[in-house]
Amino acid sequence: MWIWGVAGACAGAVVLPGVAPAAPAPAPEADLAFHGTAVLAGDRAVVKLTPRDNGPAAVTGATVRLRWSVEPAEPQRLPARCAREDERSVVCGTGAPAVHGAGAQLRVPVRLKGRPSEVTLETGTAWGGGAVDRNRANDRLKVPVLNTGDAYAF
Questions:
Q1: Tens digits of per-residue pLDDT, 73-106?
Q2: Whole-prediction pTM value?
Q3: CA dist., res. 69 & res. 84, Å (int)
Q4: What confidence tier does 21 reach under pLDDT thresholds 50, 70, 90?
Q5: For residues 125 and 98, what is the distance between their CA atoms, to the nearest angstrom?
Q6: pLDDT at 7
Q7: Which one-letter DSSP state was computed for residue 16?
């Protein structure tokens, strides 16, 4: 029975000499970037970020990952387009920013365990809408944030 299944699966494949199979279309290229601020006051951190598509292709939707060096507390009230990914990460849908333009600002408040004197926030594209991003330097960032109530820009 197993031999029949393999033979049946291969029966549809036809190889003709001199004819190459069609290559899949290359993925579009888009340069996603995230710019914003992070503030830490007490056990509360607030990230405000704006996604940007520097082109050349459009992104139909993307997801940004925010990873904290300190574990967020339980429970959390995250914005509707955000979800916990693991013990230290939150992922949020960014929508579809216009090519060579900015998308809607995303505000993500997070309550952290304890009252850390500082944290490191890592940002990065979790999913780029199927586009290839050859410049990851402007979406993969590490931001030190001190517990001063001041805004740290990235």
A1: 999 999 999 999 999 999 999 999 999 999 999 9
A2: 0.81
A3: 15
A4: low
A5: 17
A6: 41
A7: -
Q: State the Cα–Cα distance between residues 86 and 134, nearest whole angstrom.
A: 26
Query: Quick check: 141 and 21 in contact, CB under 8 A?
Result: no
94 torsion bin: left (phi>0), alpha (psi -120 to 50), beta (else)? alpha
| Amino acid at position 104, single letter | A
Residue pair 49/106 in contact by the 8 Å Cβ criterion? yes
| Confidence at 24, pLDDT banded by 50, 70, 90 | confident
Question: Of 139, 145, 136, 129, nearest to 38 (Cα)?
Answer: 145
Tokens of 109: 């408040």
- 3-class SS of residue 7: helix
Calpha distance 65→86 (Å, rounded): 11
Q: Work out the number of other CB atoms within 10 angstroms of the CB of residue 76.
A: 14
Predicted confidence at residue 25, as pLDDT, reads 72
